[in-house]
Each structure stands twice: as C-alpha cells, then as structure tokens.
Amino acid sequence: MRETLFVKIRLVMLKRFFAVLVLFRLFILFSGTSALSGCANVLPPEGGDRDSIPPSVIKEASTPNFQTNFEKQVIELTFDEWVVLEDAFNQVIVSPPLQKREELKLKKRTVRLTFDEEEELREDATYTINFGEAIKDLNEKNPTENLRFVFSTGDVLDSLSVKAKAYDVLTNEPVEDVWFMLYENRADSVIRTERPYYVAKTDEDGRCSIENVRADTFKIAAVKSAGPDYLYDQPNEQIAFLDTNYLVSMANSDTIYMPLFIENKPLQLTGSEVGEFGIAKLIFNREPDTVNISHSAPDLDFIKEIDKDTLKLWYGQEQSSPWRILINWDTTRIDTIYVEALPRDEFVQAKALTCDQHNKRARISPVEPVKLLFNHPLYSWDTTMIKIYEDTLQTVVQPQIFIDTLNARQLIFQYAWKEGVPYEFRLLPGAITDIFTLQSDSVNIDYEAQLLKDFGNINLTVEDLDTTQNYIIQLLGSGDKVEKEFFLSGVSRFNRRLETLAPASYKIKIVEDRNANQKWDTGNYDMKFQPEQLMIEKLEQLRANWDLEFATNWRPRR
Fold first, then answer.
1. Which of 43, 123, 173, 397 is 20 to 30 A from 198 (CA-CA)?
2. Which residues contact residue 322 at a Cβ distance below 8 angstroms, ignoring those fewer than 6 apart?
3. CA atoms within 13 A on the CB side of 533
C-alpha cells in the first residue's frame, strides 16, 4: 500500500517537472522572438546574390556639393543604404589641408563632417574633401566611388587639375601612400615648415590627381612621410621634387613623374674596434664609401676593406708606440682614434691563415676564373707548392695566379678550363702567405668544368644613349647580384654579346652616371641634386644552349 502511494507521488512530481520545463522553453523562445523583432541593430540579410553596388549620396537629403561663397558649416552626406566609416583618419584628405583636424561622425545613413571651432577657411579658395574608401556599405563593405565634396569660399570654383605618378627611383616600381604636394609659398624651406596648399595621396599604382586647382605657379614635392604630417622632417623619408616651379594651366596636362629617393645620411662614426693587432674596425652609420683616412704611424701600410657599414683597416707591421687613426671629414674637422702598440708575436701564435672554401667537388664555368677566399689579406704565394691537376690522368696545368685588386683576401686562378673535365687543386702547406707572414695549411678542392651547352648567351643592345653623358650598364642575376658591368662614355649605342651565362632570370640596369664616378648616386634636396636616373628591364628567361636577343632604348622618366 505504501509502495503504491509512493509510486503515485513520484509520477505526479515528474509530470509537474516536465510541465515546468515546457513552459520555460516556451518562455525562452517567445523572449528571443520578441527581442529579434524589436532589435535596433541592422543585420545583413542571408542568402541571395552578393551586393556589388557601392553606396550613393542622396542629393536632396545632403549638403549641396560644389557650392560657391561657402561659409563654415556642418557638411552632411546621406546615403541610399546603411554605411560604415573605416580608417577615416588615413582615407579622408582635405585639400588645401585644414589647420585643425575635422570631426567625422556617422548617424544612421548620414556622415557628418564638422569643422573645428577654431578653423578659419582661406579666402577665395576651392576646397576638395576626398573620402577615399572611408565610407562603405554595411553588408558587403563596397566603398564609395570617387566621392568628393567640393566648395569654394569665393565666387568661383577652380577647375584645373594636376596628375602625378610617384615611383622608387632604384626599382622603378610605383609607390603607394605618397603625399603629392603643391605649395603656394615657393621658398625652399617650405617642405619642412609649412603645410602644402594642395595635396593628394598616391594609390597602389603610384598615381594621384589633384582636382579643382587654380591657375598659378607652385612649388612641387612628393614625400613618403614617416609621420602623420605633410612635412619632410625625417632622415629615412623618401622625397621627390621638381627642379623648377610649376605653372598650372590648361597647357600643362601631362602626368608629372616623381622619382622618390632617400638622401644619404651625413656620414658619421658610430664606433670602433682597435683592441686586436692587425685589424682596426671603424663603424659608421652607413657604407663609408667616401671617408678619408690617414694615420700617424710613419711605416704603416693599410689594406682597406669595406664590409657594409664597417671599414676594416688591415696592417701587418708592429708599432713600438701608440699611434692614431685620423678621419679627415674636411679641412676643419678631424676625428682621432687612438691605437695601443699591440704585440705582433701573440697574434701570430694564436691565429692561422685559412681558406673559406670547403673540400668538396664544385662546378665551375669553363670561361671564368677560380677564386679562393682566405680569412686574411694575402701577400704572396709559392707556385712550386701549388699543384693543379687536369682530368683523370692528372696532367699538371699552370694557370695565371694573382691577388684580387678589389679584395686582397682573394686569390684568383685564370685558365682556359676544358669542358666536362675534372680539376684537382692541391695547395701544400705554406703555399700561401698573408700580410702577417702566416702560412696556409693544406688546401684540397676538386672542381669540374661545366659544358658550354649548359650555358646561354645574351646579345644585348642599348640604343639612344646621350653622347654627352656617361653610363653604367649592368647585368643583374639572382638577388640583383651584378654579374656583368660596363662603363660607357661618349657613345650613342651599346652592343655586346654576353657569353656563358648560367640559365636564370636576368635584368638589365642602365644608370646615367652624371658625375662619372662609376656608381649610382642618390639625390639631395638642399643641394638641388636629383638622383641619377636609371632604368631596369626584366629579360626573358635564359635557357641552356640558347642565344637570347634583347634590345632596348634609354628612356628615363622625366
């Protein structure tokens, strides 16, 4: 009886539990439906074709565009769909630039631009507000197309335009996000002290256009700014400038090409390492290609080696007293580095002359010399202790041997290597002597000369060279390594057959060497020195056993 009653009670409790559970679920479902129906957020629709149409301004509901005699007011742009604001700080550009930052806010489908209370608009000036891609539709993020708001504080709207393209002078590649600027004030210092009168930012193709410009003469510059301003005030910023002021008129409608460059930093000594005999290292803020070095030791000879930002000064003579390295910046400024008289014997006992090449078979070009690199500058070699064997019969050959004039640590072996033939280099102990009188240990390296059919040739022609100019023509290989280099002067045409080149992708680089120093020089704004013009062209892939014909014209951008 008790068990039956207990079972009935349990059944009643279970029924009540499930009833409450059903009511709770219904409550949750009803609450969620009510919340969705009353939600103020706009949600993107699901399904259907993708919306590809950008937002459009509803003219009737917006502040009238292209006004004259404009007075400072809130500018409202209402769109035909829900929109969002993204990256407005970088996308929205006002030209002429405002002194105070404008405020942009979004309310429903309306973008409101409010001028700062202290902002004073220029008199008789045409302003252009470029919105870039700051305004996009809510669902698919389609940006507005060429959205500009234009107004004039005077009686007329200026209607001229200026187009430009900015490119890196070293690579000829377009540069994005460069400020292209026109200055009303034409003083040289203006690019460091004042905002421009007109400004635009280049796109991914390096192009930009300033619209609604008045007819006048302007100073023109372009800056890839490292900061948030329009000023050229950082040493690592790229700059381009026109040599002369530019007249904006109906007649000047061509694109202005702006070759961007980085000025050389003034060469500065940043450190030195002189605590080891035989080598003094001077460390600079950039490559020390123009530094003038002397010293106070009467019988000391330097061998100079530049390694990126470091100038290595090798010397083999021991000094009995401290001496000085003198860095002669100009006639009035000399930096002095003091060097202790260090013991030569300790250095010689602790060091060894070694070859950087490893003992393994390597493939060599049949028309190129073999180069062995050592860890110290070389002084002499003993040909009786150098054995070079050709083919499997080990025929002894005698190549020309000399120290590389451009790198004193490198020994060059010049010989007409036979195709497909193996060579054994056997340098006996003591074969090579360095400037410290250290002698090399055994050096054993095996080579094999490749077949000529494994290489290709390039027939290169360059036309339309200026006979009054100097040129550098380079063949660039992997990583833009210079494979071949030629220096020209007083010629209008260059033609050369470049033979026995490894199959690869190559480029031709042509430099107008205006100062005939056989290297490319960057520009300098204050000295009004433009970077030396150059052009780079990519060649068709060179294949083995193939002659590639390539002809081009010297046509720098001006």
1. 173
2. 338, 339, 340, 341
3. 12
405 CB neighbour count, 10 Å cutoff: 8
SS3 at position 193: helix
CA atoms within 13 A on the CB side of 196: 25
Specify the CATH number of the domain 351-450: 2.60.40.3710
Rounded Cα distance, 121 and 96, in Å? 9
Q: How far is CA 465 from the centre of its chain?
A: 28
In three-state secondary structure terms, 61 is helix
- Looking at domain 455-553, its CATH superfamily turns out to be Immunoglobulins (2.60.40.10)
Q: How far apart are CA 275 and CA 342, in angstroms?
A: 8
pTM here? 0.79
pLDDT in tens, the chain (558 residues): 444 444 444 544 545 555 545 445 544 444 444 333 333 445 555 555 677 899 999 999 999 999 999 999 999 999 999 999 999 988 899 999 999 999 999 999 999 999 999 999 999 999 999 998 899 999 899 999 889 999 999 999 999 999 999 999 999 899 999 999 999 999 999 999 998 999 999 999 999 999 999 999 999 999 998 776 789 998 899 999 999 999 999 888 899 999 999 999 999 999 999 999 999 999 999 999 889 999 999 889 999 999 999 999 999 999 999 999 999 998 888 999 999 999 999 999 999 999 988 766 789 999 999 999 999 999 999 999 999 999 999 999 999 999 999 999 999 999 999 999 999 999 999 999 999 999 999 999 999 999 999 999 999 999 999 999 999 999 999 999 999 999 999 999 999 999 999 999 999 999 999 999 999 999 999 999 999 999 999 999 999 999 999 999 998 765
Residue 62, classified by CB atoms within 10 Å of its CB into exposed (0-12), middle (13-18) or buried (19+), is middle
- CATH fold label, 160-260: Immunoglobulin-like (2.60.40)
**CB atoms near residue 140 (< 10 Å):** 12
Residue in this structure with the two tokens 């009935």, named with its chain if needed: 8
Name the fold adopted by 269-349: Immunoglobulin-like (2.60.40)
Residue-wise DSSP of 405-466: SS-TTEEEEE--PPTT-EEEEEE-TTSEEETTS-BB--EEEEEEEPPGGGSEEEEEEEE---
Which run of H or of E encompasses 364? Answer: strand 362-364
Q: Are 114 and 105 in contact (CB under 8 A)?
A: yes
Burial zone of 237 (CB within 10 Å; 0-12 exposed, 13-18 middle, 19+ buried): middle
What topology is assigned to 59-152 in CATH?
A: Immunoglobulin-like (2.60.40)
Between CA 175 and CA 300 the distance in angstroms is 49
Q: Domain limits of the chain?
A: 59-152, 160-260, 269-349, 351-450, 455-553
